[in-house]
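Subject: design request, 239 residues
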């Protein structure tokens, strides 16, 4: 019976992602963001519980990626679609307006395609058992779901205007898609043991991230993910 416990937690991730998809389509980004975060929590703990119970297996690995595809693939793609469309897109009028701007919102779905490709590669890449190569899809998802929340709650007009700029969104979409599939080594936040000596980079990252969250709230999320990538590159052993 215990071998099914991690899989049930993974299905919790999938359930959160599915409900988040519904909210994202409706433009309720707060609810969608909350459910994505909850799904990512499930995603973190399914592996932890599997290792704790010593029941890791191929089924759990495949199920994990399928759940991530929804929570950290479909949802951010829909949110980026909405950011491009600025909530003005009407599917019933789409066929009457064959202009570049009419097709532009679909550009956001490149994130979904990039996430799918990254997850498929992850399942067959034996190098990613201890760390990551390329930006994990949950990190990409957190980055994207933070954008409409920053736009809504940030008092910094420059940042609000930046997120409303389609050229900025195009760059972000392409850059995140590239990062997910790039050959860039990134450290994992999974701990085998908790000594400071062997986990200095992880503790440094967590401490600075907490300080940034307290100071900048929603704006902290993309900054933390950028910091994660930069710190990983700096701390990665040079070949």
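Subject: RE: design request

Done. Sequence follows.
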């Amino acid at each position: 019976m215990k071998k099914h416990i991690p899989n049930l937690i993974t299905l919790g991730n999938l359930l959160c992602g599915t409900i988040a998809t519904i909210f994202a389509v409706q433009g309720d980004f707060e609810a969608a963001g909350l459910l994505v975060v909850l799904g990512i929590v499930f995603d973190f703990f399914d592996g932890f519980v599997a290792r704790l119970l010593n029941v890791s297996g191929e089924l759990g690995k495949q199920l994990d990626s399928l759940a991530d595809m929804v929570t950290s693939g479909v949802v951010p793609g829909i949110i980026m679609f909405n950011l491009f469309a600025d909530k003005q897109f009407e599917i019933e009028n789409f066929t009457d307006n064959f202009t570049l701007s009419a097709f532009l919102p679909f550009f956001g779905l490149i994130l979904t395609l990039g996430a799918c490709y990254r997850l498929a590669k992850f399942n067959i890449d034996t190098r990613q058992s201890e760390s990551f190569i390329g930006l994990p899809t949950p990190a990409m998802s957190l980055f994207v779901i933070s954008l409409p929340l920053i736009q809504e709650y940030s008092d910094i007009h420059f940042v609000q205007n930046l997120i409303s700029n389609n050229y900025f969104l195009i760059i972000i979409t392409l850059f995140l898609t590239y990062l997910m599939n790039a050959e860039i080594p990134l450290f994992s936040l999974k701990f085998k043991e908790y000594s400071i000596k062997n986990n200095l980079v992880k503790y440094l990252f967590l401490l600075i991230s907490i300080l940034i969250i307290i100071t900048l709230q929603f704006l902290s999320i993309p900054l933390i993910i950028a910091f994660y990538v930069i710190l990983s590159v700096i701390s990665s052993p040079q070949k």
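The radius of gyration is 18 Å.
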